[in-house]
Amino acid sequence: MQTLQVRTPSHAYPIHIGKGLLADFSLFAPHIGKKAAIVTNTTVSALYAGALEKLLRDNGVETFSIVLADGEAHKNHQSLLQIYDALLAHRADRKTAVVALGGGVIGDTAGFAAATYQRGVPLIQIPTTLLSQVDSSVGGKTAVNHPLGKNMIGAFYQPQAVIADLDTLTTLPEREFSAGMAEVVKYALLGDAAFLAWLEENIGGIMRQDADLLAQTVAHCCQMKADIVAQDETEQGIRAHLNLGHTFGHAIEAEMGYGNWLHGEAVAAGMVLAAELSRVQGCLNAGEVARVSALLRAAALPVVPPEFPFERWLAHMRHDKKVQNGQMRFVTLRRLGEAQVSVLDDENLLRQVLSA
Amino acid sequence: MQTLQVRTPSHAYPIHIGKGLLADFSLFAPHIGKKAAIVTNTTVSALYAGALEKLLRDNGVETFSIVLADGEAHKNHQSLLQIYDALLAHRADRKTAVVALGGGVIGDTAGFAAATYQRGVPLIQIPTTLLSQVDSSVGGKTAVNHPLGKNMIGAFYQPQAVIADLDTLTTLPEREFSAGMAEVVKYALLGDAAFLAWLEENIGGIMRQDADLLAQTVAHCCQMKADIVAQDETEQGIRAHLNLGHTFGHAIEAEMGYGNWLHGEAVAAGMVLAAELSRVQGCLNAGEVARVSALLRAAALPVVPPEFPFERWLAHMRHDKKVQNGQMRFVTLRRLGEAQVSVLDDENLLRQVLSA
């Protein structure tokens, strides 16, 4: 097991990464009181909730599960109200821990419920997908979607601990594994050219889920995320770089209906568009854009966005959270391994990228 | 105009108290960008929203109003979703200020919307009732009610500024003015015996809304609140004292249906019960309990709770946010002018107080 530390102005907490962690009560003990609510979905519940409930109960923790419908389409206010209702029905109080057991949707939804139930209760993140292990479980962003925009309602709320058990990845469908790889590639592109080269070299082994390569990959991404969050907890500056590919990606997800394109798939196609935008800005050359595409294709990810009218792209992107005083802002690449935030004042550049 | 400062670990901000403040753009300018959403209710909108919209627009701020139904019954998720929908429809972004124009319900609901829209946008509190000027607009508690409990869903989120215009109290119905006085009396009881004596002496003038006495009252309560919040922003300790009378009060509000007893009325009856609990604990004598009742009666407030079964009281109070690991906790008085938090391990004490 490796343990990293996330240090923010508001809080410090550990990320544990390794195998067999869901059977180790000592990782939970410092963060849990007499009662805990496990928030999970129908798929993950069938695989892991029973054993986790037993672990907690055998150690004297009164435990109940809240099982949401599976999928991005359910990352909404209805799921949130389902969690609140269950917490109140079970008389959860301010010391009751919320344990988020699942992927990014569960982590974000349960995390926001924990942030707002009685103005905040302890939260433990147990990410069970590659995407949530390398990205969404770390750093305290929580949110649900609104019909008019992804992650529009949320809070910055740090967990007490993140417990990333690599064994849970063995039950992950291949398509979900690939979706997680999109965020892995994102870290390389936005901030670490050496990691990009390492990924290109090892992508075959990682996709076969070689245990050592996978552990290195998860730990490296978590460390990068922890470093960025430590510098900028509430996204006043550098944290925005983590949105590489996400402005385009969110538009794809919203246009296609949440869940039809997986978040990681939309981000993959979005990163190719961001790379292309960086090229028309004069920062990347065509060969570098092709290198981005090739790595994503090797991770079995889509690199071409779905076709829909330019006006629909604009409509979605104008709701992006990086918009400030009406101006659209994009994360682009200054070079492979270094991101920047660009204010887009010429819509034609965007039209050019999207019509290519 | 008087200006007090609230300093918390997360943030520092001014409270402006005086007459004619709603016409002074210089108080808004430091906290507002290109766009602002005024959140108000049908009653307050008719009185003050037009002039405020004009002030902001005349100074170049794009402004739109979100008008909620009036009353505690509407401090719920439906109103919250109405605010989110309007913010998105008007393309509010992270720099768009939310201006809460109204009483405690508006401040709490709009405040929670500001805390969670895009994970947090600037918030300006303009309290227009005595209750919100002396209490709820200061300190960053935001929340909406759940059918199973008051203020169950919320966040700690500090405003950029509080602008308390005493002129707005002239349009306040007498019953609402009295409700605000309950919180004024609360401050005296929980932490300031000299202020209690001053209130007893001046209650007649205050109830006639003598301008100087009223300004002194509001400023004194805001200063006490600011001092307590500076010590304990997220209610780990002393801030709980501000809940004097509220555990009983919330039970009354929930049992009678939100809005039938005003919050301040329920708190008034609740403070008499808390005083009575302090008496059976051996801290107050019967004369001191009578002194509490007399002052509340002089403020035209109810001092006897509605009758309902003991089991209903218990059911409501077990959902109180001060419950920890299943134990009920009450704010009681060590003496007049000094509060404490008591763990209640003998339900019979409570039965005795409620059956008296």
UniProtKB/TrEMBL annotation, chains A, B:
<dbReference type="InterPro" id="IPR016037">
    <property type="entry name" value="DHQ_synth_AroB"/>
</dbReference>
<dbReference type="GO" id="GO:0005737">
    <property type="term" value="C:cytoplasm"/>
</dbReference>
<dbReference type="Pfam" id="PF01761">
    <property type="entry name" value="DHQ_synthase"/>
</dbReference>
<dbReference type="InterPro" id="IPR050071">
    <property type="entry name" value="Dehydroquinate_synthase"/>
</dbReference>
<feature type="binding site">
    <location>
        <position position="183"/>
    </location>
    <ligand>
        <name>Zn(2+)</name>
    </ligand>
</feature>
<feature type="binding site">
    <location>
        <begin position="104"/>
        <end position="108"/>
    </location>
    <ligand>
        <name>NAD(+)</name>
    </ligand>
</feature>
<comment type="function">
    <text>Catalyzes the conversion of 3-deoxy-D-arabino-heptulosonate 7-phosphate (DAHP) to dehydroquinate (DHQ).</text>
</comment>
<dbReference type="GO" id="GO:0046872">
    <property type="term" value="F:metal ion binding"/>
</dbReference>
<keyword id="KW-0170">Cobalt</keyword>
<keyword id="KW-0479">Metal-binding</keyword>
<keyword id="KW-0456">Lyase</keyword>
<comment type="pathway">
    <text>Metabolic intermediate biosynthesis; chorismate biosynthesis; chorismate from D-erythrose 4-phosphate and phosphoenolpyruvate: step 2/7.</text>
</comment>
<feature type="domain" description="3-dehydroquinate synthase N-terminal">
    <location>
        <begin position="66"/>
        <end position="178"/>
    </location>
</feature>
<dbReference type="GO" id="GO:0000166">
    <property type="term" value="F:nucleotide binding"/>
</dbReference>
<keyword id="KW-0520">NAD</keyword>
<feature type="binding site">
    <location>
        <position position="150"/>
    </location>
    <ligand>
        <name>NAD(+)</name>
    </ligand>
</feature>
<feature type="binding site">
    <location>
        <position position="141"/>
    </location>
    <ligand>
        <name>NAD(+)</name>
    </ligand>
</feature>
<keyword id="KW-0028">Amino-acid biosynthesis</keyword>
<feature type="domain" description="3-dehydroquinate synthase C-terminal">
    <location>
        <begin position="180"/>
        <end position="323"/>
    </location>
</feature>
<feature type="binding site">
    <location>
        <begin position="70"/>
        <end position="75"/>
    </location>
    <ligand>
        <name>NAD(+)</name>
    </ligand>
</feature>
<feature type="binding site">
    <location>
        <position position="263"/>
    </location>
    <ligand>
        <name>Zn(2+)</name>
    </ligand>
</feature>
<keyword id="KW-0862">Zinc</keyword>
<dbReference type="InterPro" id="IPR030963">
    <property type="entry name" value="DHQ_synth_fam"/>
</dbReference>
<keyword id="KW-0963">Cytoplasm</keyword>
<feature type="binding site">
    <location>
        <begin position="168"/>
        <end position="171"/>
    </location>
    <ligand>
        <name>NAD(+)</name>
    </ligand>
</feature>
<feature type="binding site">
    <location>
        <position position="246"/>
    </location>
    <ligand>
        <name>Zn(2+)</name>
    </ligand>
</feature>
<keyword id="KW-0057">Aromatic amino acid biosynthesis</keyword>
<dbReference type="GO" id="GO:0009423">
    <property type="term" value="P:chorismate biosynthetic process"/>
</dbReference>
<dbReference type="InterPro" id="IPR030960">
    <property type="entry name" value="DHQS/DOIS_N"/>
</dbReference>
<dbReference type="GO" id="GO:0009073">
    <property type="term" value="P:aromatic amino acid family biosynthetic process"/>
</dbReference>
<dbReference type="GO" id="GO:0008652">
    <property type="term" value="P:amino acid biosynthetic process"/>
</dbReference>
<keyword id="KW-0547">Nucleotide-binding</keyword>
<dbReference type="GO" id="GO:0003856">
    <property type="term" value="F:3-dehydroquinate synthase activity"/>
</dbReference>
<dbReference type="Pfam" id="PF24621">
    <property type="entry name" value="DHQS_C"/>
</dbReference>
<comment type="similarity">
    <text>Belongs to the sugar phosphate cyclases superfamily. Dehydroquinate synthase family.</text>
</comment>
<dbReference type="InterPro" id="IPR056179">
    <property type="entry name" value="DHQS_C"/>
</dbReference>
<feature type="binding site">
    <location>
        <begin position="128"/>
        <end position="129"/>
    </location>
    <ligand>
        <name>NAD(+)</name>
    </ligand>
</feature>
<protein>
    <recommendedName>
        <fullName>3-dehydroquinate synthase</fullName>
        <ecNumber>4.2.3.4</ecNumber>
    </recommendedName>
</protein>
